[in-house]
From TrEMBL:
Source taxonomy: Bacteria, Bacillati, Bacillota, Bacilli, Lactobacillales
UniProt keyword Acetylation present: no
Record-annotated membrane-spanning stretches: 33-53
Keywords, alphabetical: Coiled coil, Membrane, Transmembrane, Transmembrane helix
UniProt superkingdom: Bacteria
Residue runs in coiled coils: 59-93
Identification of the protein by name: Cell division protein DivIC
Pfam family, one: DivIC
Length: 122
């Protein structure tokens, strides 16, 4: 069964075809406009996201630096306390004499010095 379709080509059909083409063209323009708006929105979100990530990386770097500096501060504080304690011990003349004899091998007349590792007073 072969169907033969005959299309009418009157003024009404021409007007409807023109109206359909006009609507399709308007739809394409609208879709193009929405595409540009979408691209613009994406670009507007990329820059703040990049800045946010960069700020977060800086924050992590500063946190690591802070912990490193806190550890260093604790080490220096402990060393300072030990140096103060050592200085207070050196104010005692007996301890200072004992320390000088052990560290610098000072001796009195007639004494012999035998060095034993690990016996230096602290």
């Amino acid at each position: 069964m072969v169907r033969n379709i005959v299309q009418l080509n009157n003024r009404y059909i021409q007007d409807e075809n023109q109206h359909r083409r006009y609507l399709e063209q308007e739809k394409r323009k609208k879709n193009r406009f929405m595409g540009w708006v979408l691209i613009l929105v994406i670009l507007l979100f990329i820059l703040p996201t990049f800045n946010l990530v960069q700020s977060y990386q800086n924050l992590l770097k500063h946190r690591a630096q802070l912990t490193h500096l806190q550890k260093k501060y604790e080490e220096i504080s402990n060393e300072k306390e030990s140096q103060k304690a050592f200085a207070n011990k050196l104010k005692n003349e007996e301890y200072a004499a004992k320390y000088a004899r052990a560290k610098y091998y000072y001796s009195k007349k007639g004494e012999y010095i035998y060095t034993i590792p690990g016996l230096l007073p602290q």
